[in-house]
Amino acid sequence: MLLTGETVLITGSTQGIGRATALRMAAEGASVVVSGRNADRGDAVVAEIRAAGGQAAFVRCDVGVEEDVRAAVGAVVDLFGSLTLLVNNAAPTDQVTTGGDNTVLEATTEQWERILRVGLSSVFWCCKYAIPHMIEAGRGSVVNIATASALRGESGLDGYTAAKGAVVSLTRSMAVEFGSKGVRVNAIAPGFVPGDLPASRAVLDSPAMSKAFRSAQLLADWGRPADVAAAVTWISSQEAKFITGVVLPVDGGATAYSRMPDLQSADFLEVAAAARAL
Length: 278
Fold this sequence. Notes:
Layout: E1 7-10, H1 16-27, E2 31-36, H2 39-51, E3 55-60, H3 66-80, E4 85-88, H4 93-97, H5 109-137, E5 140-145, H6 158-178, E6 183-190, H7 198-205, H8 207-215, H9 225-236, E7 247-250, H10 266-277
Parallel strand pairs: 1-2, 1-4, 2-3, 4-5, 5-6, 6-7
Helix pairs in contact: 1-9, 3-5, 5-6
């Protein structure tokens, strides 16, 4: 198994990509600390892991509160004796998908600051308190969950893309700082990955939205939370021991794709004919 002997804290792991990552890392032998704000969902994930023979515990944590983060990291060490892996997965998804983000002209300062606190400051706090335990252990891996939207423009999500773009830069800076101390720091940038969140279901239920999202990626299939979890697990493992400071898109090719117009469409042929007539 890839993660035997490792202990991991995964923020925001009561649902979606975080839950899938908790299940996968436990299956690969890690002792997993599931964390989030909803204890019922967290306990359910822990029960799933234990039913499959894995080791897990739930620690309630609001990553937008520094003291919660400090306490969660301490709880991991108290429970399992060490902390060697960290997955910074929590994000202000609930705010973004309910109209709590916007352009810089329309977002409020309160919205902006909350997104940065949950999406960026949380990564700072988690790393601040977790990395010393990794240095003490002589090894460690941090994986920050960014987004493909941080690697290219995304209309109407200025707070979210700013926070995640900063996470990408912070990933590289920390990789430089802590590589000599045995701690690797990488980021995963998921694209649109339908999961169990209401926003994902809304997209899939809308033919127009579904078509728009699918046309923005190269691969035909939708990504799944398990696909992201597989990437996180591998890059956290010793199989990726020579990799640090990278940002790995898991997005069906979306960030590699500069979508060109259909040169055979009626609209384009009309424009081309008009241009030839000039």
